[in-house]
C-alpha cells in the first residue's frame, strides 16, 4: 500500500471520547466476537482511513447497463472504451484524494487501465484513495406481489472477494433495498431477508479481507409519505441489520454503513435540511452503535446542492457524533461532471474541475464547514431520473 494511506490524523473530540469509552469494552466484545479473520486489524484501519475527517467515497460502481443509460443521456455510446474513458476522467482528477478516501468500482472497471497503461487501482492508490468493489449482482423481486426485492450475489462470493483483493480492492459494497410508502411495505420477509443478506455478505468480506460497506437503503420512492414514516422504517431496518451483523460475528469497527438520509416521499413537500438532519441523526443515534466508524450517506433522490446542504446540516446538528457523518455519493458527484464532459476531449479539464469542486463542497459539509456558494446550485429533486430508471445501480 502506498505511503499516502496513513491513519487519519484527527477526529472531533466527541468521537475520540466515545472511542475511548468503547475501548474499555474491547475485551468483552472481542471475546464474544466469533470473527477470527486474519485481517481484522487491517479491516479496522482501512475503515478508519476511509471514514477520516473531511473525506468521503466516490460511488462509481454503476453496472454497465446503468452507466450506459447515463452516457447515452449526454450522447455518448455505451461501449467498453467509453465507460473506461469516463472512469479515467473521474479517477485522474488532479488532487481528488484531498476529498475522497475510497472509490467504489464495478467489476469491469476494477481491471481497467488508463490510456497511459496505468491500472485504475494504481492511479487511485497513488491519490490516497482505496479502491472498492460492488460485489452484489443486483436485485431480485421477492414473491408476494408488492415489488419488494432481495439482493443477489452470495453464491461464489468468497472466491470473488479473494480475486478482488488480489487486484487491489480493499473494501466492498452490497446494496439492499427496502421499499416503503405502499400499504404492506416493508413486509417482515423483506426486512429479515435483506438484513440476512447484508450480514452474510459482510461476514464473507471480512473473512477474506475486504471492509464491507453495508448498504440498507430504505428507498426513496414515489408517494406522499412523511419524513417520520421514513424514519420509523429506517430505524427498524437498521436495527435488524445491526442485530444480524452481531449474530454473524461481524466486527463493527471494520465495516462502513451506507444508508439513506431520512427524507419524505417524492410526492410530499421537500423537507428542510434542518428537519432532515434532526430526524436522520435521531434515527442513527437510536440504531447505529458508536463502534461503526463511518456513516456514508447515498445521494439518491437529492440534487447536487441538496446533498451538500443536507450533509452540512447533519454535521451542524450532531458535531459530536460518534461516527463520521459523511458521503458515498454517486449522482451528486457525477451528474454535472458527466454533462460537462459529454464525451468530448476538449471538455476533459472542465469536467474534472467540476468534480473537484463538488468533492470539495461535500468534504467541507462532512466537517460542517461548507459555507457556499454551491458549485451546482439549484435543481430540485431528481424525481424524473428516479422514475425513468436513473435510480440505484
Ligand atoms: P447515489 O449517490 O447516486 O444514490 O449512489 C450511491 C450508491 O452507490 C447507491 O448504491
UniProtKB/TrEMBL annotation:
<protein>
    <recommendedName>
        <fullName>Fructose-bisphosphate aldolase</fullName>
        <ecNumber>4.1.2.13</ecNumber>
    </recommendedName>
</protein>
<keyword id="KW-0704">Schiff base</keyword>
<dbReference type="GO" id="GO:0004332">
    <property type="term" value="F:fructose-bisphosphate aldolase activity"/>
</dbReference>
<keyword id="KW-0456">Lyase</keyword>
<comment type="similarity">
    <text>Belongs to the class I fructose-bisphosphate aldolase family.</text>
</comment>
<dbReference type="InterPro" id="IPR029768">
    <property type="entry name" value="Aldolase_I_AS"/>
</dbReference>
<dbReference type="InterPro" id="IPR013785">
    <property type="entry name" value="Aldolase_TIM"/>
</dbReference>
<dbReference type="Pfam" id="PF00274">
    <property type="entry name" value="Glycolytic"/>
</dbReference>
<comment type="pathway">
    <text>Carbohydrate degradation; glycolysis; D-glyceraldehyde 3-phosphate and glycerone phosphate from D-glucose: step 4/4.</text>
</comment>
<dbReference type="GO" id="GO:0006096">
    <property type="term" value="P:glycolytic process"/>
</dbReference>
<dbReference type="InterPro" id="IPR000741">
    <property type="entry name" value="FBA_I"/>
</dbReference>
<keyword id="KW-0324">Glycolysis</keyword>
Amino acid at each position: 500500500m502506498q505511503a499516502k494511506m496513513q491513519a487519519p490524523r484527527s477526529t472531533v473530540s466527541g468521537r475520540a471520547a466515545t472511542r475511548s469509552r468503547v475501548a474499555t469494552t474491547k475485551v468483552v466484545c472481542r471475546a464474544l466476537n466469533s470473527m477470527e479473520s486474519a485481517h481484522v486489524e487491517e479491516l479496522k484501519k482501512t475503515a478508519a482511513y476511509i471514514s477520516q475527517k473531511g473525506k468521503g467515497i466516490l460511488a462509481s460502481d454503476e453496472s454497465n447497463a446503468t452507466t450506459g443509460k447515463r452516457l447515452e443521456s449526454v450522447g455518448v455510446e455505451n461501449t467498453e472504451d467509453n465507460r473506461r474513458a469516463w472512469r479515467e476522467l473521474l479517477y485522474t482528477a488532479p488532487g481528488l484524494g484531498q476529498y475522497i478516501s475510497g472509490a467504489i468500482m464495478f467489476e469491469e472497471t476494477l481491471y481497467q487501465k488508463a490510456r497511459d497503461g496505468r491500472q485504475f487501482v494504481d492511479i487511485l492508490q497513488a491519490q490516497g484513495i482505496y479502491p472498492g468493489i460492488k460485489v452484489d449482482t443486483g436485485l431480485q423481486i421477492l414473491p408476494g406481489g408488492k415489488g419488494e426485492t432481495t439482493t443477489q450475489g452470495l453464491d461464489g462470493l468468497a472466491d470473488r472477494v479473494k480475486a478482488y483483493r488480489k487486484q487491489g480492492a480493499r473494501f466492498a459494497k452490497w446494496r439492499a433495498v427496502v421499499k416503503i410508502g405502499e400499504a404492506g411495505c416493508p413486509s417482515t420477509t423483506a426486512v429479515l431477508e435483506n438484513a440476512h443478506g447484508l450480514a452474510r455478505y459482510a461476514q464473507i468480506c471480512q473473512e477474506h479481507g475486504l471492509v464491507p460497506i453495508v448498504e440498507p437503503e430504505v428507498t426513496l420512492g414515489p408517494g406522499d409519505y412523511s419524513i417520520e414514516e421514513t424514519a420509523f422504517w429506517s430505524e427498524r431496518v437498521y436495527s435488524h441489520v445491526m442485530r444480524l451483523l452481531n449474530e454473524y460475528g461481524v466486527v463493527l469497527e471494520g465495516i462502513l454503513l451506507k444508508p439513506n438520509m431520512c427524507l419524505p416521499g417524492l410526492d410530499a413537500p421537500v423537507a428542510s435540511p434542518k428537519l432532515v438532519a434532526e430526524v436522520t441523526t435521531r434515527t442513527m443515534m437510536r440504531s447505529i452503535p458508536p463502534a461503526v466508524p463511518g456513516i456514508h450517506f447515498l445521494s439518491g433522490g437529492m440534487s447536487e446542492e441538496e446533498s451538500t446542504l443536507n450533509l452540512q446540516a447533519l454535521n451542524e446538528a450532531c458535531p459530536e457524533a460518534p461516527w463520521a457523518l459523511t458521503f458515498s455519493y454517486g449522482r451528486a458527484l457525477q451528474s454535472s461532471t458527466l454533462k460537462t464532459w459529454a464525451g468530448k476531449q476538449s471538455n476533459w479539464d472542465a469536467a474534472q474541475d467540476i468534480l473537484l469542486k463538488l468533492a470539495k463542497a461535500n468534504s467541507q459539509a462532512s466537517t460542517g464547514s461548507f459555507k457556499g456558494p454551491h458549485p451546482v446550485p439549484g435543481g430540485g429533486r431528481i424525481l424524473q431520473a428516479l422514475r425513468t430508471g436513473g435510480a440505484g445501480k
